[in-house]
């Protein structure tokens, strides 16, 4: 299972056999059931997760309504980055929306990798850039695309998320009402 992580890392940096051993000991395999939380709003996020399989969503509460900000799946890293990096309380919750297998690394082990894996900082930079780009793309999408176009874009770029996420979570992520998403899906099928 860790080979998925190593393959993702090797897409960005070269790692030696010794560095693979270091990474193997730093990341632990965990499983979570559907609806279990990785992080709850207001708590610390002491771990970084790499999704082997399954789906995870990030959300916050706004006047009792859950606002989904991200839906992530295989080969994605997930944590409350602000909390993880700054040791601050999370402003969002992170919940498994399916049964998940993940790799988990603690903040301490993560920081040790900077000393033990030669290009770890370069790899982390690429992860953060991908995270920032995803958030920026979503914000631009919400501002500039119609609800139908947002759904079609997601369907074209991440069909696994579009087809395997509950309507209420997907609708929130797309910034529309569940009824509107159901109507859009029917129109797309025609």
Annotate the secondary structure layout.
Layout: H1 2-10, H2 17-26, E1 28-32, E2 37-39, E3 47-53, E4 56-62, E5 65-72, E6 77-78, H3 81-86, E7 93-96, E8 100-106, H4 107-116, H5 120-144, H6 147-157, H7 159-164, H8 167-174, H9 178-189
Antiparallel strand pairs: 1-8, 2-7, 3-6, 3-8, 4-5, 4-7
Question: Could you give the count of β-strands?
Answer: 8
Distance between the termini: 39 Å
Given as residue ranges, the uncertain stretches (5+ residues, pLDDT < 50) are: none
Average pLDDT confidence is 93
CATH domain topology of the domain at 2-119:
Jelly Rolls
**SSE string:** HHEEEEEEHEEHHHHHH
**Share of helical residues:** 40-55%
Radius of gyration: 17 Å
In terms of structural class, how would the helical and strand content be classed?
A: alpha+beta
């Amino acid at each position: 299972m860790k080979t998925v992580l190593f393959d993702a890392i090797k897409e960005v940096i070269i790692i030696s056999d010794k560095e693979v051993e270091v990474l193997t000991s730093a990341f632990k395999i965990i499983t979570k059931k559907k609806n279990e939380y990785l992080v709850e709003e207001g708590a610390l996020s002491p771990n970084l997760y790499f999704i082997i399989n399954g789906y995870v969503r990030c959300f916050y509460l706004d006047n009792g309504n859950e606002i989904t900000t991200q839906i992530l799946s295989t080969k994605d890293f997930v944590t409350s980055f602000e909390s993880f990096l700054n040791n601050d309380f999370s402003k969002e919750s992170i919940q498994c929306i399916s049964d998940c297998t993940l790799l988990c690394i603690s903040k301490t082990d993560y920081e040790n990798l900077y000393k033990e894996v030669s290009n770890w900082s370069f790899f982390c930079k690429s992860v953060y850039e991908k995270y920032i780009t995803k958030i920026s793309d979503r914000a631009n999408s919400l501002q500039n695309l119609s609800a139908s176009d947002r759904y079609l874009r997601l369907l074209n770029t991440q069909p696994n998320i579009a087809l395997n996420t509950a309507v209420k979570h997907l609708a929130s992520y797309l910034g529309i009402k569940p009824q509107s998403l159901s109507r859009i899906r029917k129109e797309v099928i025609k």
